[in-house]
């Protein structure tokens, strides 16, 4: 599949709750997105099965997983664990589509605050989160396994 060209719409992509049968596709997206910090499949499976997690997948018409988004809920707080999209679908609105769905689901579940950590050098992700109303809380040094810092961000859910 060619990379995103122009303003390719995401209308042909569907969002649904992840299942164990999606793990191979989720792992493919994970490894393509986070080679340095990729979660192992067993951890992704724990999140898929966790009743306190909201785990969404974004699939194309052929039901190929092209992205995922996962958060974990604790009372009225949600921690956004990861958002990932295959490289050839980035900058096409795929991550935005998943975040919109996650926010809608959060409102339905009574979530009042969502927090996350993102690599300080991941400028495109930081810009995306800021467009969705996330604000900076500070930097945590040595957050990632390679010693890189993380920017902590938060959004108060309307």
What's the overall geometry?
globular
Gross CATH architecture: 3-Layer(aba) Sandwich
Count structural domains: 1
N- and C-termini, Cα separation: 37 Å
Q: What is the H/E order?
A: EHHEEEHEHEE
| Number of alpha- plus pi-helical segments | 4
Strand content: 25-35%
In CATH, the topology is named Aminopeptidase
CATH superfamily: Gcn5-related N-acetyltransferase (GNAT)
**Biggest sheet character:** 7 strands, mixed
* Mean pLDDT over all positions: 90
- Rounded radius of gyration (Å): 15 Å
Describe this protein's structure.
The protein is an alpha+beta fold and 158 residues long. The protein has a single domain, classed as Gcn5-related N-acetyltransferase (GNAT) (Aminopeptidase, 3-Layer(aba) Sandwich). The protein is built from four helices and seven strands; from the N terminus they run βααβββαβαββ. A hairpin with a 2-residue loop joins β3 (65-74) and β4. α1 (23-33) packs across α2 (41-49). It starts with 13 loop residues before the first strand and ends with a strand.
Keywords:
alpha+beta, Aminopeptidase
Structure summarized in a few sentences:
The chain is α+β, with helices and mostly antiparallel strands.
């Amino acid at each position: 599949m060619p990379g995103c060209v122009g303003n390719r719409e995401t209308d042909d992509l569907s969002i649904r709750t992840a299942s164990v049968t999606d793990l191979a596709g989720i792992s493919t997206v994970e490894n393509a997105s986070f080679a340095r910090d990729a979660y192992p499949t067993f951890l992704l499976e724990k999140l898929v099965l966790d009743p306190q997690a909201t785990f969404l997948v974004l699939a194309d018409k052929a039901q190929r997983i092209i992205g995922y988004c996962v958060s974990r809920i604790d009372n009225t707080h949600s921690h956004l664990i990861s958002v990932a999209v295959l490289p050839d679908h980035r900058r096409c609105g795929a991550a935005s589509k998943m975040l919109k769905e996650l926010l809608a689901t959060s409102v339905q579940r009574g979530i009042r605050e969502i927090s996350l950590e993102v690599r300080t050098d991941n400028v495109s992700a930081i810009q995306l989160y800021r467009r969705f109303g996330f604000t900076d809380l500070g930097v945590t040094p040595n957050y990632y396994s390679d010693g890189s810092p993380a920017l902590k961000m938060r959004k108060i859910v309307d």
